[in-house]
Design goal:
The protein has one domain (about 1-80). It contains three helices and four strands. With about 80 residues, the protein is an alpha+beta fold. The chain has a two-stranded antiparallel ribbon with strand order 1-2.
Length: about 80
């Protein structure tokens, strides 16, 4: 999985506790409050948000259930250009 992600995506982590302004950046990216961490958003090359990990049942940042995994793969299917 990591190889596939590295091939098609640039992975950037925002640490809201350790990074200067990390919390502010996270609030700008994530509409609304709560939902847990990790939380993901996938952007296009121009910086437009395409999809995030807030699936039909809530945040799937660390997918465990079948439904969470399905949303994670939906995120990849909708955004993978390679």
């Amino acid at each position: 999985m990591a190889r596939i992600l590295k091939k098609s995506y640039l992975l950037v982590k925002i640490d809201t506790d350790r990074m200067t302004n990390g919390e502010d950046v996270a609030k700008r990216l994530r509409k609304g409050e709560g939902g847990g961490i990790p939380w993901m958003v996938i952007f296009d090359g121009e910086g437009k948000a395409l999809i995030n990990s807030d699936g039909p049942g809530g945040n799937v940042g660390c997918p465990v259930t079948e439904e969470e995994a399905a949303w994670f793969f939906t995120m990849l299917e909708r955004t993978n250009k390679g």
